[in-house]
């Protein structure tokens, strides 16, 4: 239960942190075009709210990163929620100001507050205790939650009174975000244990609240900012001409024949002609990349026919261009002197695309983690099921010695499953940057004998002998759990693709500054066209074993990641029908290496 909650807590909190960082990144990169000081102020603050939430994860008692009897994670929770609620309230003071918010001063102020809160909790230890083991939440913690709820409710009242300063969609997202933030705080006044249902619901509500802030501050305020930037353009176009001239976005106007009536200076940076040369030229003569030109013509034709605004996102990868744009084509049929003209706005959303790609990578990492759990746990549980079934079906016919032998094998399989879970938990932490490889000197002989023992139950069940032949004199420098995972997965593959009564040979050789490991089988072999797919991270290639054993195809790709993190390399040699040998190298004792350990 606790391990399940630890995984749940880590995934949910990391998702909220990624959203908080995304809000800040896009707010910072679009600060020159945001004309709503409230969204600007809240967006800038979320990098520090996300940072404190990251400390909330790191100090979680189940991770054992920061020792101590004080539940720092609860203290960081209260500190972060106070800062978040205060941000929601302070933003309305900046909303009423006509002067543009100073982003540098805002960042510096929040940086100082964040550092002071962190020191108060971890170093000075003057922040009130919020949770006591065996007792539960302190009175301060519960009362603080109610104060935060009151602050959020007050922020909601201020939001309602200032609703005319926001578009309908932004107002709705902000109000819903405050509602779920209040719900989250209320849940955390009820729980007794960090593993209770109210705590789980509270985390869900917090994640939804962050996502709604993302919707209000990023999606609505970034990909659809036309209403925010040009709300008064129809009443007084000249008032905003200076603004449009200096915007980084591409802004231009076309007539019914698609001739350019106006283009801002950003277009000069994008294309090669001088600014004054654009007026009067047809769209097809402006010199846009062909794919970009065809898309604009298609959208202009659609607007001309339907008189409805057209919007799309477009990735431009042509020639020297590598940009992503959010494009709007707006009909201006209701404007004087612009009857039948079209306003085109192209927002550069390249940074947003990069952020979205990172979010997708995090989600793919999560999926890969769950697939590896299913893959690696199959073998020990298969052994447990087989041996236990053999015992209960033949309990009256088996001798005590035979039952003892089967029970020992079941115990070995259970221990193997436990070791797998431990290894996978460490690997999942490393995927999120929480865990780094624990490099230590390892004896290769002991390591190979240990792996042979762990893998013997699966090998014996298939009638396969595991042999250890060549052994080196040098010791290696690596993470023991990673080495165990590498060898176990490679041996499991060798057993899977070996025939009954075959053998798997383990060897290790001294080679300059490293030790060369090899695992050789005499099984079915691999066709040359499939060899490259085995280690590719984006491949799902997998084939059944000699007894139709199935797998996810992720084991060898996990091995590649661990070998490269350890400073080595991995490859294989194989011929169909003649078996396969997988080689990998690990630095020997006394050799240092500098690797990027992010996976």
Give structural notes.
Residues 228-235 and 594-599 have low confidence and may be disordered. The chain contains 17 helices and 14 strands. The strands form four sheets. The chain has a five-stranded antiparallel sheet with strand order 4-3-7-6-5, with helices on both faces. A five-stranded mixed sheet has the order 9-11-12-14-13. Helix 6 (168-187) runs antiparallel to helix 7 (197-223). Strand 11 (503-511) and strand 12 form a beta hairpin. The protein is 54% helix and 13% strand. The longest helix has 44 residues, at 350-393. The radius of gyration is 31 Å and the shape is globular. By secondary structure, it is an alpha+beta fold.
What are the key terms here?
599 residues, 5-stranded antiparallel beta sheet, 13% strand
List the helices and strands and how they pair.
Layout lengths: L1 H28 L7 H22 L13 H24 L7 H21 L7 E2 L3 E2 L1 H23 L6 H20 L9 H27 L2 H4 L11 H6 L3 E5 L5 E4 L2 H5 L19 H17 L3 E9 L2 E11 L10 E7 L1 H44 L6 H32 L8 E3 L1 H18 L3 E4 L7 E3 L1 H17 L6 E9 L2 E8 L6 H4 L23 H11 L4 E5 L5 E8 L12
Parallel strand pairs: 9-11
Antiparallel strand pairs: 1-2, 3-4, 3-7, 5-6, 6-7, 8-10, 11-12, 12-14, 13-14
Structural class by SSE content: alpha+beta
- Strand ordering within the main sheet: 4-3-7-6-5
- Beta-strand residue percentage: 5-15%
- Overall spatial form: globular
- Tally of separate helices: 17
The Cα radius of gyration reads 31 Å
Give the CA-CA distance, first to last residue.
Answer: 27 Å
Per DSSP E runs of 2 or more residues, the count of β-strands stands at 14
């Amino acid at each position: 239960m606790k391990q399940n909650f630890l995984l749940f807590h880590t995934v949910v909190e990391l998702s909220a942190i990624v959203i908080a960082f995304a809000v800040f990144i896009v707010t910072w990169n679009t600060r020159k075009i945001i004309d709503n000081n409230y969204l600007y102020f809240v967006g800038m603050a979320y990098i520090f709210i996300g940072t404190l939430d990251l400390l909330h994860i790191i100090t979680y008692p189940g991770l054992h990163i920061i020792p101590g009897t004080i539940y720092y994670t609860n203290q960081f929770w209260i500190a972060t929620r106070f800062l978040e609620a205060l941000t929601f309230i302070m933003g309305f003071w900046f909303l009423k100001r006509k002067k543009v918010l100073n982003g540098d001063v805002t960042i510096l102020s929040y940086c100082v507050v964040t550092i002071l809160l962190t020191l108060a909790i971890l170093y000075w230890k003057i922040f009130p205790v919020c949770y006591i083991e065996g007792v539960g939440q302190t009175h301060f913690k519960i009362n603080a939650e109610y104060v935060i709820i009151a602050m959020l409710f007050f922020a909601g009242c201020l939001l309602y009174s200032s609703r005319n300063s926001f578009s309908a969609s932004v107002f709705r997202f902000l109000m819903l975000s405050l509602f779920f933030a209040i719900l989250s705080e209320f849940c955390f006044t009820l729980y007794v244990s960090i593993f209770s249902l109210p705590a789980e619901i509270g985390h869900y509500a917090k994640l939804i609240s962050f996502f709604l802030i993302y919707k209000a501050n990023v999606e609505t305020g970034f990909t659809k900012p036309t209403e925010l930037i040009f709300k008064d353009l129809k009443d007084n176009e000249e008032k905003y001409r200076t603004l449009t001239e200096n915007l980084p976005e591409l802004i231009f106007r076309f007539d019914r024949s698609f001739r350019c009536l106006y283009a801002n200076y950003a277009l000069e940076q994008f294309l090669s002609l001088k600014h004054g040369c654009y007026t009067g030229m047809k769209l097809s003569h402006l010199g846009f990349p062909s794919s970009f030109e065809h898309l604009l013509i298609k959208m202009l034709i659609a607007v001309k026919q339907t008189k409805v605004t057209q919007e799309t996102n477009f990735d431009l990868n042509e020639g020297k261009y590598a940009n992503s744009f959010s494009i709007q084509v707006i009909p201006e049929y209701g404007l004087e002197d612009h009857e039948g003209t079209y306003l085109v706005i192209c927002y550069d959303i390249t940074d947003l695309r990069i952020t979205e790609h990172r979010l997708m990578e995090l989600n793919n990492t999560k999926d890969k983690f769950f697939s590896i759990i299913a893959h690696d746990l199959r073998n020990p549980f298969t052994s447990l099921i087989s041996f236990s079934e053999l015992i209960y079906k033949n309990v009256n016919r088996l001798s005590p010695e035979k039952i003892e032998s089967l029970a020992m094998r079941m115990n070995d399989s259970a221990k193997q499953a436990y070791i797998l879970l431990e290894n996978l938990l460490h690997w999942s932490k490393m995927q999120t940057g929480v865990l780094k490889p624990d490099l230590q000197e390892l004896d290769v002989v002991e390591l190979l004998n240990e792996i042979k023992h762990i893998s013997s139950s699966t090998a014996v069940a298939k009638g396969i002998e595991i042999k250890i032949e060549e052994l080196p004199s040098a010791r290696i420098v690596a993470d023991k759990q990673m080495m165990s995972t590498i060898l176990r997965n490679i041996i499991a593959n060798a057993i899977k693709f070996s025939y009954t009564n075959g053998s798997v040979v383990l060897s290790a050789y001294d080679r300059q500054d490293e030790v060369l490991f090899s695992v050789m089988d005499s099984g079915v072999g691999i066709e040359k066209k499939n060899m490259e797919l085995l280690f590719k991270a984006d491949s799902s290639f997998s084939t059944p074993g000699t007894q139709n054993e199935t797998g996810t195809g992720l084991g060898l790709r996990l091995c590649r990641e661990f070998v490269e993190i350890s400073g080595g390399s991995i490859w294989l040699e194989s011929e169909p029908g003649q078996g396969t040998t997988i080689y990998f190298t690990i630095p020997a004792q006394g050799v240092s290496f500098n690797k990027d350990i992010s996976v």
